[in-house]
Amino acid sequence: MSGAETAFMVLTTISSVLVRLSPWPDFNRVHKAQATGDVVVLPVIVLFANCYVLAWYGYLCDSIFPLLGTSVFGLVTCLFFFGIYYRWTDDRYSVHKLCVGALVVVLLVTIYGVLGVTGTTGQTESGVRTTMGAISIGTAIGNYGSPLATIRKVMTTKSTASMPFTMCLMNFFNSVCWIVYAIIISDMFVLIPNAVGGVFTSTQLILYTIYPSNTSTKLELPSVMIDPLPRFDRQASLSVILVQDDGLARKDSALNFVAIQSPIARYPSASTRV
């Protein structure tokens, strides 16, 4: 093993670990605000599926580090972040649909991996490794491109608040490291998805420069109508604007109001006058 290969093996290991930890700033804010706001869980679910496929590929390639080790670490961190999101999301139906898609991928890869390793598919070990590598290309490209799933929202709102900046930045750094490492070890299954990932992540970073994320979100709550007094044919409305500086629009379903004395004097009726 050459010095360059060793150096980039260490760099790819570090960058992969950072990618697995990169969702933390966004999901930490979700936990503190107790609401998901603009944060989406799709990148974490896709990262989980990608880590699972890479764990198989690393096992078949006898690559404990960086492939297998960082992939197993990623599975653990993704489950942790998913747990935070699931705890505070109001749209669990959409989350369930994403989970079903990821579980289908995991199940199919598991079945093929077990059958391939045991020789049931009739393939050689090299053939199974090649097939698993081809699958990893698809999941890796999906992982790099998943933050772009909200690009329509970004273009509409002129804000990248729905895109995980830390994850995008770490993915860019990670793709560069893996491109160089793949060239050194001559592995096209590692080179192709990371080259595509470099394009995707560059696009995401460009979007951040064009549409910076807004850190202050305004949420307009429904107006509260006050019943008019019998003598006056007027209505008063109260609009509440909630401004938060943590980048998350938090909705409170339980609004508390306190009764106050009306400043409008109620005159006695004619029957009660002396």
Automatic annotation (TrEMBL):
Entries under InterPro entries matching the protein: SWEET (IPR047664), SWEET_rpt (IPR004316)
Statement: the UniProt record of this protein carries the keyword Transmembrane helix: yes
Main localisation: membrane
Keywords, sorted A to Z: Cell membrane, Golgi apparatus, Membrane, Repeat, Sugar transport, Transmembrane, Transmembrane helix, Transport
Compartments, as annotated in UniProt: Cell membrane; Golgi apparatus membrane
A GO molecular function held by the record: sugar transmembrane transporter activity
Pfam families (alphabetical): MtN3_slv
Segments passing through the bilayer: 35-58, 64-86, 98-119, 131-151, 163-184, 190-211
Membrane topology according to the record: Multi-pass membrane protein
GO cellular component: Golgi membrane; plasma membrane
Family, per entry: Belongs to the SWEET sugar transporter family.
Protein name: Sugar transporter SWEET1
